[in-house]
Specification:
The complex is a heterodimer of chains A (144) and B (287). With 144 residues, chain A is of the alpha+beta class. Chain A has a single domain (2-143), classed as START domain (Alpha-D-Glucose-1,6-Bisphosphate, Chain A, domain 4, 2-Layer Sandwich). Helices cover 30% and strands 55% of the residues of chain A. By secondary structure, chain B is an alpha+beta fold. Chain B has three domains: 7-53, Uridine Diphospho-n-acetylenolpyruvylglucosamine Reductase, domain 2; 63-173, Uridine Diphospho-n-acetylenolpyruvylglucosamine Reductase, domain 3 (2-Layer Sandwich), CATH 3.30.465; 178-286, CO dehydrogenase flavoprotein, C-terminal domain (Enolase-like, domain 1). In chain B, the strands form four sheets. Chain B has a five-stranded antiparallel beta sheet with strand order 4-5-10-6-7, sandwiched between helices. The radius of gyration of chain B is 19 Å and the shape is globular. The chains are: A alpha+beta (144), B alpha+beta (287). Chain A binds chain B through residues 1-2, 5, 53-58, 84-85, 116-117, 119-124, 126-128, 130-131, and chain B through 1, 29, 36-37, 39-40, 43-48, 118-119, 121-122, 155-158, 193, 221-222, 256, 258-262.
Chain lengths: 144, 287
Amino acid sequence: MRVEGQFEFEGISSEAVWDFLTDANRIAECLPGCEKLEKTGEGTYEMQMKIGVGAISGSFSGGIRLHNLQPTSQYEMTVNGTGAPGFVKGEGKVQLSPKDSGTLLQYSGDVSAGGAIASVGQRMIGGAARMVIDQFFKCVAGKL
Amino acid sequence: MIAQNFEYTVATSLAEAVNLLQKHGGRAKILAGGHSLIPMMKLRLATPEALIDIGRIPELSYVRQDGDMVRIGALATHHVVETSDVVMRHCQALADGAGLIGDIQVRNKGTIGGSIAHADPAADYPASILAFDATIVTLGPKGERLIPASKFFVDMLTTALEANEIVREIQIPVQSGKTGSAYLKMAQKASGFAICGAAAVVELDGSGALAKVAIGITGVGNRAFRATETEKALKGQKPTTDLLKKACEKASSGVIALEDIHASADYRLDLARIFARRAVEAAIERA
């Protein structure tokens, strides 16, 4: 499932956005339903989160890996999680570009799922991913 | 699969159900017809600690006309909505939609209140509810609240309902003048859910021009939406074939579409344009 979008950080420098997005503790502050996020190595994190979209919710544990980091302009991210409702995998790229009014963040990637989520919720996975991503960036903008 | 353990309580009134919701602090779910919630619980996609069954509360499954308002109780089943004389007379698009939900077993158990509270992005009702400018009446600890349809559907599976509020009634203004409405959909073959559904409500003036036109589209985006640009292009105009075709080209502009193995995002956006036109044509036919 292709997921892409963008977000504008008004009046916030790309350095500030970058520092936030590569700091495990700060990511955890904004990741919806995040119960644990620990750095386990260079760019790798272990996490536990409870994702809820309306009546559907599930706890997932898994990892995030940030790679191909090009400070303050772009990085790639691999996410995987397993839980009772099935598994979720995601791979994407985040790009930051400075603008007069702040920073423009663009993301694009692929999300896939298996298990019960995929059998009934396949049509909702892309939309649900967008909701979580949007909540996350809104929270980041609020904290910067 | 079998659902995770949960507590089960039968509420004898909506006020009691609200109290029980409060008590469980967001970890309970309201059970009405159970045709969305129970399948999700069996797959353990939903794991509420308690179910509060409002399905046995008497007198919440009414459909009646009250002056210039059609009032539909939250527990009216899809079958009741589909076959109601009042709905057929004043808001036919809603009856069209109800009659296209799932199969007869689902329509005999599933309720309009449950369906809109669940807010599945592919549910049929939201398209008509938006096009009719309906009002959703809810009950919570602070009493009743009236939520306009335009504010009710917030996002996928997400409504303006607070965790301790319950849908009590749906109010649809009775249309005046030479009016007609229709709902058409392309259904997913197995589930019957809308890949795209469009509802249109029109009013024609003496010259045959569109004095009013409202179009709601479901199944395409994260939530149902109004095709406002198409409405603007049609309002006050005589609905010629060319104009309808041109105006409906904008029916899904700016929408981020869902996609799955049944339909790509682009295909859904295109269906929205086509079904918007067909729904307006069908509504005009009935006016």
